[in-house]
Specification:
Structural class: little secondary structure
Order of helices and strands: EEEEEE
Oligomer: single chain
Strand content: 5-15%
Largest sheet: 2 strands, antiparallel
Distance between the termini: 113 Å
Number of strands: 6
Mean pLDDT: 96
Length: 220
């Protein structure tokens, strides 16, 4: 039987605490280099302030620096363990996780955030149409989607209403042309008039005689 605290001893193995000091068994402490008391590993876990490192012994998540105890061992932090640990900036997001953090969650850099913006307060910003980043429902930087500004030529788009020229082809806003079925560019009506397209026929809109096949622009 091991000797209790304050009883006589010759070596550490004589004592329940595993520590013999000047012939007397010492009470367990969290810095004696021995796993004793209610520690779950050497000088950590249990009532000790120090959390146990990965793969050390544990009884509960609170014993571990990772906050996760699995099969009596402190688990290595992961991006799917439901705990803010490791290099994460918030729960299972940011840092070295592939998942970006949602708006208002903690961040250390813009790359931690879905919005692409980390505020000076250390939180991910809510997307805006004037923040210089393509985020939220925007189809390109600060345009398209729910933004009031329409996207210019070659910018990203999902539908024609994302584009200044009202033509979205292959996910890009197309330049105005005289054959796109839309009144855009300097056309005075759909695919006619202006400086580039053929004159308009019939009672279509015009701004000068040259816009009209009849060479007469009549203003009502």
């Amino acid at each position: 039987m091991k000797c209790g605290d304050l009883l006589s001893c010759a070596v550490g193995k004589d004592c329940q605490s595993g520590v013999c000091v000047v012939g007397q068994c010492a009470a367990p402490t969290c810095k004696d280099g021995v796993k004793n008391g209610d520690e779950t590993d050497v000088d950590c876990g249990g009532s000790c302030p120090n959390k146990c490192a990965d793969l050390s012994g544990c009884a509960a998540g609170g014993d571990c620096s990772s906050g996760v105890c699995t099969s009596s061992k402190c688990a290595v932090p992961s991006c799917s363990d439901g705990v803010n640990n490791g290099a994460e900036t918030d729960l299972d997001c940011g840092g070295n996780c592939t998942t970006k953090c949602n708006d208002t969650l903690a961040c250390g850099a813009a790359s931690d955030c879905k919005s692409g913006i980390c505020l000076a307060t250390g939180t991910c910003a809510v997307p805006a149409c004037d923040d210089g980043v393509q985020n939220g429902p925007e189809t390109d930087v600060d345009c398209g989607g729910s933004c009031p500004d329409l996207c210019g030529d070659s910018a990203g788009c999902l539908v024609k209403t994302d584009c200044y020229n009202s033509v979205c082809v292959g996910g890009q806003c197309a330049p105005a042309s005289c054959f796109d079925g839309v009144k855009n560019g300097d056309e005075t009506d759909t695919d006619c008039g202006g400086n580039s397209c053929a004159p308009c026929m019939g009672q279509l809109s015009c701004s000068s005689d040259s816009d009209c096949y009849s060479n007469q622009c009549v203003f009502s």
